[in-house]
Amino acid sequence: MTDLRFLEAIPGGDELAAGSAAAKSDEALDAYSRVVTRVVDHLLPSVASLRVWKRTRAERRAEGSGSGVAISKDGFVLTSAHVVHGTDGGSATFVDGEELGLDVVGADPLSDMAVVRATGADLAAAQLGDVSRLRVGQLVVAIGNPLGFNGSVTAGVVSALGRSFPTRSGSVTRVVENVIQTDAALHPGNSGGALADASGHVVGINTAVVGPGIGQGLGLAVPINAATRRIIAALISEGRVRRAYLGIAGGPRPLPPRLAAETGRDAGIEVVEVVEGSPAQLGGLRSEDLILQIDGSNIGTMDDLQRLMDARTIDRATAVTIYRGGRTLTLDVTPSELPG
């Protein structure tokens, strides 16, 4: 390896040092470019431009557009729920120019994920990754169809992990947890497109752009993890996602020092409000209760609570361990199905 300090110490060495540094910069750029190019070559055939419509009495009228990622050879395509909201069909166009009709299989506004199916398809299926392996600063590549430009690619880094944003379906509001924040430039039309790691695995579905102007600020992506894999499976098999409902509003709260020492934990969920007539009220939960466990699983964040409120918990007596008035109690609460 050339010592640049030695080059700078000899006549004309500064020019040699500058040339050597430039060469190293070119090498680094080439390495970066090779990674991005490899991801694009691997993943681009799996990313589609989606056009969706509503069917009226007279015609099918185009309503919007977005992106999607093929996840099976037989036509299943993953996208954002808001891309297909209120539609009953559309078309998917892939980078080779092939245009296929599509039907909506299922959408889940509370996770902003949807599955559509392209007809007559033999698709190049992308491989799903796992957000738990991502690190802040890691290279990611976004592929989608912003502003109608098919197969557009941007690259950047993971700016932050563990972000959240609220979603809504009717009167129900839910927070999507563990969202990926990236500085890869995103524009309208990127929603539903792929966010991939350096191995070409899809680790997120691009869902939102924030900032004062289009393409400025930071992009967000719904993570691919165990929870979202279950959502995808439910959408494919049932066309919807069933969730359990307790009927509380709350947030994380540090445990009292003695309780923290006894349990070896730092936090639980404080019940701020109990909805009248809800399973929580019927089961005896009250405001200011501190939820410690549900069915033996520790609860420290609302994400912990949401993760347990899945279809398996609906209409099943569930042990809820709380801290109230200096005592630890266990209540039997039977969650009902979240309407929607």
Draw up the topology in text:
Blueprint: H1 4-8, H2 13-43, E1 47-55, E2 60-70, E3 76-79, E4 89-94, E5 99-108, E6 113-118, E7 139-144, E8 152-169, E9 172-182, E10 194-196, E11 202-210, E12 218-223, H3 226-238, E13 244-245, E14 248-254, H4 257-263, E15 267-274, H5 279-282, E16 290-294, E17 297-298, H6 302-308, E18 318-324, E19 327-333, E20 336-337
Antiparallel strand pairs: 1-2, 1-4, 2-3, 3-6, 4-5, 5-6, 7-8, 7-10, 8-9, 9-12, 10-11, 11-12, 13-20, 14-15, 15-16, 16-17, 16-18, 18-19
Structure characteristics:
340 residues, alpha+beta, Thrombin, subunit H, 4 domains, 6-stranded antiparallel barrel, 6-stranded antiparallel β-barrel, 6 helices, 20% helix, disordered N terminus
Could you explain the architecture of this structure?
The longest helix has 31 residues, at 13-43. It contains six helices and 20 strands. It has helices at 4-8, 13-43, 226-238, 257-263, 279-282, 302-308; strands at residues 47-55, 60-70, 76-79, 89-94, 99-108, 113-118, 139-144, 152-169, 172-182, 194-196, 202-210, 218-223, 244-245, 248-254, 267-274, 290-294, 297-298, 318-324, 327-333, 336-337. The strands form four sheets. It has a six-stranded antiparallel β-barrel with strand order 1-2-3-6-5-4. The chain has a six-stranded antiparallel beta barrel with strand order 7-8-9-12-11-10. Strands 14, 15, 16, 17, 18 and 19 form a six-stranded antiparallel beta sheet that branches. Helices cover 20% and strands 41% of the residues. Residues 1-13 and 211-215 have low confidence and may be disordered. It folds into four domains: 4-44; 45-118, Trypsin-like serine proteases (Thrombin, subunit H); 131-225, Beta Barrel (Thrombin, subunit H); 244-337, Pdz3 Domain. The termini are far apart. With 340 residues, it is of the alpha+beta class. The protein is globular.
